[in-house]
Amino acid sequence: MNTLCRLVLSAALLAATPLAAASLGSGLSNEGFMIDLTSVERKGNVVTVRWSVRNDNPKAKYYDIDLDGAGATSYLVDEESGTKYYALTDKEGHLLATEDEYEGIWEQIDAGATMRFWAKFPAPPPAVKTINVLFTKSEPFESIAITDK
Length: 149
Hints:
This protein is mainly beta. It has one domain (about 20-149): Immunoglobulin-like. It has one helix spanning about 5-15; strands at about 25-30, 35-45, 45-55, 60-65, 75-80, 85, 105-110, 115-120, 130-135, 140-145, 145-149. The strands form 3 sheets. Strands 1, 2, 3, 8 and 11 form a 5-stranded mixed beta sheet that branches. Strands 6-5-9-10 form a 4-stranded antiparallel beta sheet, with no helix packed on it. A two-stranded antiparallel sheet has the order 4-7.
């Protein structure tokens, strides 16, 4: 193969390789999952939170977070006002999140595997520039900068 073909092929392969999302913070849950918060973006009246979860357990395990209902344990908190922001739902009551499983996300992750998730929340006022992100059975991600889009 000539040098030009190799260069073109190498460039094509590099362009096709997804870059790892930058992490805003990482934490180990009480159930052996490594959670990486990848973005907190505000667009209009909605904040979209994206994160990835790696199963550090020796076997497949269900990742379960509660986003809705009386038992919601995953939400955003504005420390200045003390306001909690719970995940949004559509007109039919379905969560605006990766997986609408009853009241949250319930997904089996193989040992060593990583999955990505997202959820939408009401946006705090524009003057609020940081937010705390809380997930079920893990330590909070505190003072996370909100990126305005």
